[in-house]
């Protein structure tokens, strides 16, 4: 990846510590020695939650049409006023899930989390379906029918709604609940149905806990991010339905176009906090449509890739240090 050609070059440091790059998350700790050994790159660790928030705040303020809602296959971009952004709940779905109340730049609190996250979907999915990779598992969920395995309200109530408490016949009463009474073995279920039920179970649960936390702190906006989502329509749809269902239509789930890279972006932006005396920012060559330069205590970075027409083009930004 030519990582050793990027990052910061500290001319004043001893030769073994010359190149360092910002990194965040568990990997910045877990793989620090490996980076040093294989690439002679030192990882400059930045706090994971701080980076997530910095990345999210930056994107929400600087990037036009960053946030959108997604319901019934309809994507609608949200108008975010940068002066009226806070407070909001940021839900980052990686292997596990973190829920962070964001009150301003650098002002945040991790208020909750759940261990039932992307790792649970992928881990259980791998065991139950024998899928070899995440994309295959997700792809399968498109064709599946969760009603085969999930126990619905209608299954319990002889096909009818339980209208008195607001539950329709199609509401899931118990995820995977049908498997207890079907007298079937794992091989009798189609992998696509398992995948679909798993995705709904995980996404519903995250949507529900998120809404409850938003309610707990009176937060109107919930932004969902993390590599688990990856713009996947059914995942977003399920999370949106869960938030809508539990909030009785009061709250709305929002998603971010650059959802999988908040932490990395936040770590990247933390270069601007660094004293630049004696440091040179190296340009990361051709692979990445990015250029970084510095002057005094300012960093200018531009990511100016060409539009690919699918809305995923690189962002263009200028970051000023203070
Ligand atoms: N191609 C992929 N391969 C593996 N997992 C993927 C892939 N695409 C999306 N995912 C999902 O992303 C999750 C990991 O996301 P991410 O890399 O953001 O988390 P992490 O940094 O490992 O977790 P945490 O934030 O809990 O430390 C996986 O558990 C899986 O659900
Ligand atoms: C441990 C982290 C923060 C690592 O990214 C993440 O995986 C997480 O938020 N897990 C959920 C832990 C919990 O709050 O139950």
Give a structural overview.
It comes from Gossypium raimondii (Peruvian cotton). It is an enzyme of class 2 (transferase). This is pantothenate kinase. InterPro entries: ATPase_NBD, Type_II_PanK. Pfam families: Fumble (PF03630). There is one protein chain. The chain is α+β, with helices and mostly antiparallel strands. The longest helix is centred in the middle third of the chain and has 27 residues, at 191-217. A hairpin with a 3-residue loop joins strand 6 (88-93) and strand 7. Among the domains are: 3-46 and 262-287, no CATH class; 58-117 and 201-257, Nucleotidyltransferase, domain 5 (2-Layer Sandwich). Residues 283-322 have low confidence and may be disordered. The radius of gyration is 22 Å and the shape is globular. It has 9 helices and 15 strands. The protein has a 7-stranded mixed sheet, sandwiched between helices. The protein has a 4-stranded mixed sheet with strand order 3-2-1-13. A two-stranded antiparallel ribbon has the order 9-10. It starts with 7 loop residues before the first strand and ends in a 19-residue tail after the last strand. 32% of the residues lie in helices and 24% in strands. Bound molecules: adenosine-5'-triphosphate (ATP) and pantothenoic acid. Residues 25-26, 94-96, 118-119, 121-122, 134-135, 226-228, 230 line the site of adenosine-5'-triphosphate. Adenosine-5'-triphosphate binds at residues 25-26, 94-96, 118-119, 121-122, 134-135, 226-228, 230.
